[in-house]
Amino acid sequence: MKKLLLIAAIILLISSCSKDDYIPIESDLDTELLNVLDEASNGIGTSFFMLPESNDYVSIPQDPLNPITEEKVVLGKLLLHETATGGNPKIIEMKATYSCASCHQAAAGFAAGVRQGIGECGIGFGIRGEERVADTSVPRDSIDVQPIKSPTLLNVAYQDVMLWNGQFGGTGTNAGTEASWTEIQENFLGFQGVEVQAIKGQKVHRLQIDDEFVNTFGYKELFDAAFPDVVESERYTKRTGALAIAAYERTLLANKSPWQNWLKGNNESLTDTEKKGAIAFFGKGKCYECHTGPALNDKGFYSFGMGDFDNVNGALLLYDVNIDKVKRGRGGFTNNPVDDFKFKTPTLYNLIDSRFYGHGGTFTSIKDVISYKNEGVPQSTEVPLENLAPQFGTIQLTAEEIDNMTSFIANSLRDPELTRYVPESINSGNCFPNNDNVSRIDLGCD
Length: 446
Hints:
- Helix content is about 30%, strand content about 0%.
- The chain has 15 helices and 4 strands.
- InterPro entries: Cyt_c-like_dom_sf, Cytochrome_c_Peroxidase/MauG, Di-haem_cyt_c_peroxidsae.
């Protein structure tokens, strides 16, 4: 009888442990990683680093003046990719050939696939934007090329200011910088950086969202749904278009990466090498001092002495860009020498997709960036030593730790499903994210 009872108990135990009830046993590496995360989060633990679901609007940081709604997200998703927004070009033949996504493609981790993002007068795309080049047959001042690496749109909800120098945004981090807003009057509207960039960027990048655009390309009903409380005379404008784009951008979260899966309890989503890399990242490397929270960034500005577009061959500089001001980073905006050569902390998700690293795109390897910070020898000779971040050259990682950390950043932080954020088509029927003749061929539109 005892034997029968034992067999019955075993059968009951096996049947109760269904696949859905399976709880993976933590390895020593998992336990060690949990411990360093607990310390890095001041006792909060894994939840401190978790990204919300993209449709969990309540949990996504948002601008109180621009609450996220499904209708705004639907509209913004289309507008960011809509090449018909390229309606205010310097060269008429370039009309409707570019979009916001020309420099922020999902295939490149919502950054540009090239060192310098190119809007108007850019041609070609390749597979993930890596073959986009400037049209050299047009005047140099007609090319909308960026003087600094196009930052990713991933996880921008966790920033209250935008651009490498943080100049866009009229609240929070930029409180007290009002004297520097002369050329950024949009900051006085009181919006956060994501919204300000979407407004300001339309003029800077020669985009056109207005009543004519809305009616010509069939966006009226979408604007009506997204902004029912805005009077019709103000409903179809660059401001409402920008607010829709910003709402959509806030939902661009890398929440399907292996790292996020591990944080949710799937211990098998990371390899042992990646777990060791995470332990080095949040432990000895102290990377969490800048790269923290769900987006692995913060709201600070730091100098690591990285190079700029003017000191590496191949950069295309425009005549009307003050490159010295660009190089000064935060200091170029605030005019405070203490801020010189300091740049905003970027998120680290999907870096492997973007191919270029640093504000000047002077690195093409994640491992090289880690090694560079470990060694502490600045690329730029212009940065005063007192302005360099205290973390630069002081962490003393071993070669193995660098390799492990590289694996963690490159693989664990890569969300492989970013195409879920891309529309199947846009209202104009144009090719996107670019609509020039070469891009149309690359993208299979012709």
